[in-house]
């Protein structure tokens, strides 16, 4: 894990000019190749590779994918050296230690152990790019590789994550009319008109929070993330752009959110005939939910109970992960990862004992799910 943390893999879609995943992909490919994995380098976007290590089973078993992302958020603002991979008090500190190079390290070690022992089914190790932005890495992987199930090793404090929220991004452009600041009879203030919409967003979020609809995730939410408008102090602004994020729970879709947003804008326009706005849809990702009786969930729960002395508790997460992409492609999926803290924060760490436990549990799960190779 320390070697992974020491590699700069900041996502350049988040920080222009950042290192990206090439160096860490090279490391993962070498490490897996040295242990006999069949290596596939997927690089539809130059300089942004994902690595897939394939251990082919002898036949007669189910296939399993381990999935973890190698990119991180910015190094800026980190307390100390974010790439030093400092060990202290049973923790490993550094950018990406928790989110999620701990999970990548554990799945690589577990897969190597399982391959050495021999499996009936295929084991696929996907070290993917770009989860922190748009997840083109996992999308590229599932276009080439299928599996009977998958485990995403995002950090989960050694608890079984069987649901998480999705999100939908929208930009609402409120129109005004440019004019000199001294000519109010000619101008329409787009920023002032946006005030109605901003108040409506707050009301929208209040209604959502008052009506939780999911037993693990509660309610969806909405907030205004960015606002841009105006040219200079002495002019009426011709437009104001409000970017918003709507977090969704299972049962909600980008389409249902668009309908909610459209109804709000129509109501404002009916109350204020001078209000004009258009909606531009951005990136949307669905929420995720696994059936608790899925075979991979049961195999992982049993392996966790054997290693930890009790079955891992269930949990839902408010953030989004690649689980949703895998599940959406027809691959049953569950999230299970190490303990620690500081994702995207000024200090980040993973508990080393939990990473060791995670590797053991993933190894046992692979044996249970894929099946042991029969010896002649």
CATH architecture label name of the largest domain: 3-Layer(aba) Sandwich
Distance between the termini: 36 Å
Number of folding domains? 2
* CATH topology annotation of the largest domain: Aminopeptidase
Mean pLDDT, as a whole number?
Answer: 97
Radius of gyration: 24 Å
CATH class (first level) name of the largest domain: Alpha Beta
The largest sheet, given as strand count, sense and whether it forms a barrel, is:
6 strands, mixed
Strand content: 25-35%
Number of helices: 9
Structure description:
The chain is of the alpha+beta class and 376 residues long. It folds into two domains: 2-164 and 288-370, Zn peptidases (Aminopeptidase, 3-Layer(aba) Sandwich), CATH 3.40.630.10; 166-285, Alpha-Beta Plaits. Helices cover 33% and strands 25% of the residues. It is built from nine helices and 19 strands. The chain has helices at residues 2-5, 22-34, 97-117, 136-144, 190-209, 254-271, 295-308, 323-328, 352-370, and strands at 38-42, 50-55, 64-69, 86-88, 91-93, 123-128, 149-152, 160-164, 166-175, 179-180, 221-229, 235-236, 239-248, 276-285, 288-289, 314-317, 333-335, 340-341, 349-351. A six-stranded mixed β-sheet has the order 1-2-6-3-7-17, with helices on both faces. A four-stranded antiparallel β-sheet has the order 4-5-19-18. β18 (340-341) and β19 form a beta hairpin. The mean pLDDT is 97.
């Amino acid at each position: 894990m320390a070697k992974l943390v020491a590699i700069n893999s900041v996502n350049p879609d988040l920080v222009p000019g950042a290192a990206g995943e090439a160096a860490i992909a090279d490391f993962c490919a070498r490490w897996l190749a040295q242990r006999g994995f069949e290596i596939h380098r997927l690089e539809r976007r130059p300089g942004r590779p994902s690595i897939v290590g394939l251990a082919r089973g002898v036949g007669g078993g189910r296939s399993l994918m381990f999935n973890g992302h190698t990119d991180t958020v910015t190094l800026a603002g980190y307390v100390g050296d974010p790439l030093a991979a400092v060990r202290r008090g049973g923790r490993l500190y550094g950018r990406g230690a928790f989110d999620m190079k701990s999970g990548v390290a554990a799945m690589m070690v577990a897969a190597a152990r399982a391959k050495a022992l021999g499996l009936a089914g295929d084991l696929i190790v996907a070290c993917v790019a770009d989860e922190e932005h748009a997840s083109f890495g996992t999308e590229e992987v599932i276009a080439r590789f299928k599996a009977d199930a998958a485990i995403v090793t995002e950090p989960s404090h050694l608890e079984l994550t069987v649901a998480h929220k999705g999100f939908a991004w929208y930009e609402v452009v409120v129109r005004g009319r440019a004019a000199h600041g001294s000519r109010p009879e000619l101008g329409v203030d787009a920023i002032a008109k946006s005030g109605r919409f901003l108040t409506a967003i707050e009301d929208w979020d209040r209604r959502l929070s008052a009506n939780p609809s999911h037993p693990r995730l509660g309610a969806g939410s909405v907030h205004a993330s960015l606002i841009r408008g105006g040219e200079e102090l002495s002019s009426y602004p011709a437009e104001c752009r409000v970017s918003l994020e709507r977090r969704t729970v299972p049962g909600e879709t980008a389409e249902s959110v668009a309908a909610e947003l459209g109804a709000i804008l129509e109501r404002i326009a009916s109350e204020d005939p001078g209000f004009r706005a258009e909606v531009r849809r951005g990136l949307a990702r669905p929420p995720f939910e696994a059936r608790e009786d899925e075979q991979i969930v049961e195999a992982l729960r049993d392996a966790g109970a054997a290693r930890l002395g009790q079955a891992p508790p269930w949990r839902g997460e408010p953030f989004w992960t690649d689980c949703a992409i895998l599940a959406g492609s027809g691959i049953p999926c569950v999230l299970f990862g190490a303990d620690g803290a500081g994702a995207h924060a000024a200090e980040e760490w993973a508990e080393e004992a939990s990473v060791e436990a995670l590797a053991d549990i993933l190894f046992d799960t692979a044996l249970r799910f894929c099946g042991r190779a029969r010896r002649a």
